[in-house]
């Protein structure tokens, strides 16, 4: 389901009103589904998903080696494929290219995997012995992460085997930095860096500006700094976590708006944003609730929602599941991947078929059809003061929202 409502509604027409009032049932796009990705041997967790949601990468325990793990690549056709290691017993995949053909992560060092070459070590910065890759550009050519060096751990950018790793340095006064994500074209890199005094701050790096601090969350007392984990396709939106006196909060940063808190679950103290879709409109991550960790989705229209309660409203059966963390969202917003508990075991999962990541707005009850029941649902939400009922986005719930809802209902869902 793909329709997203903006702050302006189309004008009402008599024809539209007649159609809506008649309760004309309309078909809504196929509902999303959740898939258990299984494991190699033991627990598993998904770290990222490619641009269209067809490839997932992550890490799975590998029981034959105590404490061992393996990076995996999953597709619906092949299932979970063990990508091996660079010689040790440990490995994990962290990011994947847009087409799903390049996977990056860490084993003994940072690696780049392709079907033709398998795992290839990216080495380390000068004076270093270990490294880990955390992000990759859409075409698989730019890789970012952290490496040990003669100066300490540093964020790196890798663009070719000939040049090797480029040390991105630190923010002023810092002794540590780590790159966590990179834009689709490889031009914008985000992560965290220590600054003078030992605080960590989120950064945004470009070749023109170098490493620039993103500061801390706006409008709240700050207990400590911030860390960036993800960036959208053109580098204009950055997501991560920031420390406040109220606890850790997920944030969404833009050049015009700065670092804005995405809030927390009722009764919870911590949220972390882990990834953002291509246009920056949908953010996923994890948060603590009184019942434990829960995966979340954030959009401007939905706010912060627990996927464990939100997905069932879209028709997704979560029987046996507790979704604890969302780690990746596809560039097109149609898929979210992460990990949770299924049948008492930690398992990687992917939810596909999300459309834009937001349901068709007038399908108020989420049953996959537009009919008079949705008008009843809207009326109930309006009476309860639910933010959903502010259809025209003007911050006030009034009769204009009933007209807006009628209009969007009549327009249907793509």
What can you tell me about this protein's structure?
This protein folds into two domains: 1-29 and 361-414, no CATH class; 31-360, 6 Propeller (Neuraminidase), CATH 2.120.10.30. It has four helices and 30 strands. It has helices at residues 14-21, 307-313, 372-384, 399-411; strands spanning 26-27, 33-36, 44-49, 55-61, 69-75, 79-82, 92-96, 103-106, 110-114, 118-121, 131-136, 143-147, 154-158, 165-167, 177-182, 189-194, 200-206, 210-215, 226-231, 237-244, 247-254, 258-261, 271-276, 282-289, 292-299, 303-306, 321-329, 336-342, 345-352, 369-370. The protein has a four-stranded antiparallel beta sheet, with no helix packed on it. Strand 4 (55-61) and strand 5 form a beta hairpin. Helix 1 crosses helix 4. The termini are close together. Mean pLDDT is 88; it is low at 1-29.
The chain-level mean pLDDT equals: 88
CATH architecture annotation of the largest domain? 6 Propeller
Our count of domains comes out at 2
The CATH topology of the largest domain turns out to be: Neuraminidase
Q: Tell how many strands the DSSP assignment holds.
A: 30
Radius of gyration, whole Å = 22 Å
- What is the count of helical runs? 4
Question: What proportion of the residues is helical, as a percent range?
Answer: under 10%
How is the largest sheet built, in terms of strand order?
A: 2-29-28-27
Strand content: 35-45%
CATH homologous superfamily designation of the largest domain: TolB, C-terminal domain
Largest sheet: 4 strands, antiparallel
Residue stretches low in confidence (pLDDT < 50, at least 5 long) are: 1-29
Shape: globular
């Amino acid at each position: 389901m793909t329709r997203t409502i903006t702050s302006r509604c189309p004008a009402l027409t008599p024809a539209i009103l007649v159609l809506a009032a008649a309760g004309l049932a309309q078909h809504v796009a196929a509902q999303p589904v959740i898939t258990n990705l299984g494991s190699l041997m033991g627990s598993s967790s998904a770290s990222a998903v490619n641009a269209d949601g067809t490839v997932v990468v992550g890490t799975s325990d590998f029981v034959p080696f105590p404490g061992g793990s393996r990076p995996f690549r999953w597709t619906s056709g092949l299932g979970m494929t063990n990508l091996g290691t660079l010689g040790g017993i440990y490995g994990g995949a962290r990011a994947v290219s847009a087409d799903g053909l390049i996977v990056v992560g860490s084993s003994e060092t940072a690696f780049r995997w392709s079907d033709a070459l398998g795992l290839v070590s990216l080495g380390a910065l000068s004076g270093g012995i270990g490294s880990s890759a955390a992000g990759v550009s859409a075409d698989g050519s730019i890789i970012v992460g952290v490496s040990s060096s003669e100066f300490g751990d540093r964020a790196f950018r890798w663009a070719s085997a000939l040049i090797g790793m480029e040390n991105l340095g630190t923010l002023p006064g810092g002794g540590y930095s780590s790159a966590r994500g990179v834009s689709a074209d490889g031009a914008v890199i985000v992560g965290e860096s220590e600054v003078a005094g030992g605080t960590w701050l989120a950064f945004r790096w470009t070749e023109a500006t170098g490493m620039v601090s993103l500061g801390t969350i706006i409008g709240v007392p700050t207990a400590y700094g911030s860390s960036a984990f993800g960036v959208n396709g053109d580098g204009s939106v950055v997501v991560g976590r920031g420390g406040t006196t109220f606890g850790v909060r997920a944030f969404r940063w833009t050049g015009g708006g700065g670092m804005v808190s995405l809030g927390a679950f009722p009764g919870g103290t911590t949220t972390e944003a882990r990834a953002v879709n291509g246009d920056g409109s949908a953010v996923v991550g994890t948060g603590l609730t009184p019942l434990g960790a829960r995966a979340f989705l954030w959009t401007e229209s939905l706010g912060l929602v627990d996927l464990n309660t939100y997905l069932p409203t879209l028709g997704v059966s979560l029987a046996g599941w507790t979704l604890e963390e969302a780690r990746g969202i596809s560039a097109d917003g149609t898929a979210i991947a992460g990990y949770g508990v299924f049948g008492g075991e930690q398992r990687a999962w992917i939810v596909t078929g999300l459309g834009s990541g937001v349901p068709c707005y007038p399908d108020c009850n989420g049953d996959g059809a537009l009919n008079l029941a949705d008008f009843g649902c809207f009326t109930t939400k309006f009476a309860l003061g639910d933010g959903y009922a502010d259809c025209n986005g003007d911050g006030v719930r009034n009769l204009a929202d009933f007209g807006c809802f009628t209009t969007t209902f009549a327009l249907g869902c793509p």
